[in-house]
Write a structure and sequence with these properties.
Blueprint (H helix, E strand, L loop, with lengths): L1 H26 L4 H24 L19 H14 L14 H19 L11 H35 L6 H25 L6 H21 L25 H15 L9 H8 L3 H12 L3 H17 L9 H7 L5 H12 L3 H8 L1
Helix pairs in contact: 1-2, 1-7, 2-3, 2-7, 3-5, 5-6, 6-7, 8-10, 11-12, 11-13
Length: about 350
Amino acid sequence: MDNWKAIAYLLAFGQGFVLCLSLIARSFGGRRAGLFLGLILLVLCQELLNAWGMQVHYHSRPDAIPFWNWQSYLVLPLATWFFMRLTTEPGYVFKPKYGSFFLPVAVEIAIRCAWSFYRNTLGVEIPSLLDNAPWFFVTEILPIMGMVAVLGIYGRRLSRIHSGLKTHGGERSARTWFRFYGLFSFLSLLTILWIAGVIFEWPVFSGIELLLALCLSGLGYIGYISPDFFTLPALPKPKQPEKPDFARFDDRAEFQRLRDVFLRDQLHTRSGLTLDEVAGHLQLPPRYISYLINAHSNTNFNGFVNGFRVEEVIRKLADPGEQHKTILALAFESGFNSKSTFNQVFKQHTGKSPSEFMLVQK
């Protein structure tokens, strides 16, 4: 059984290592999020290689290459932080000066290598670095603390973006949920097991190794095949809503009535739908409807209507009875009046072009 585990760990390492190198290489073409996803996978690949080494007792061989000295857990919170910002903040740019945050990683690896060289080459018996309390705190406890903090911020951002998209009619599906929370859930579970093993000294490392072997390749393939998969659609920038004096209306009830009338009467399928037409349908002042949309959807009237139109297209794409129609025909049926507008709005709401979305759905 142990031999099978060793083989499985080595295969998963090889597959994940190739993927993380590919992600890092492709990041130089401008996809910076791939660089940090690759760094995350690299650390996890090293962990699997270390698990393989323990299975076959590689560490005790006199001719062993000390690859374990080139691993640093400090990479994880840093890479996760920049990956989060690049995928949740439109226009965020990783500047070269930010690379200085990774200097502690280089220092740790240099000290590990020097310590190993001094002990093995000169034959000097010295204690393990992990027996040093400050070193253990910096290289084991501090990365855990960093991951907990970064994942806390990451989770709040994901929830806010997801809720914002749902408010103005964004797509709702298992794929959407995974796109938002798949990587986050994996890293969260990994961090929980990490805390249990390092701080509470529970015997969970076999569980960590299994989790890495199962999830590493899948997440790597997703990031390689679709580099923008984890880049979330941008929410429109919140506008300070105008506050007209409409005290006689119940804002919450009227906004729900506005959404219900779109869902029930399919107003968004009318090409060229105007604010005045919606106001006449609801018998409400146009300025009040504009205020409701700005205040409760963080978007304008066009963004609100287009959200329903994109949702309508996605619904029809999943309907077997609509499969004989082109996606452009579905777009026109859903209320769009031009191909360019449809392509632009669809990518803004889903993060993918219509053709890319259809390929993933298949």
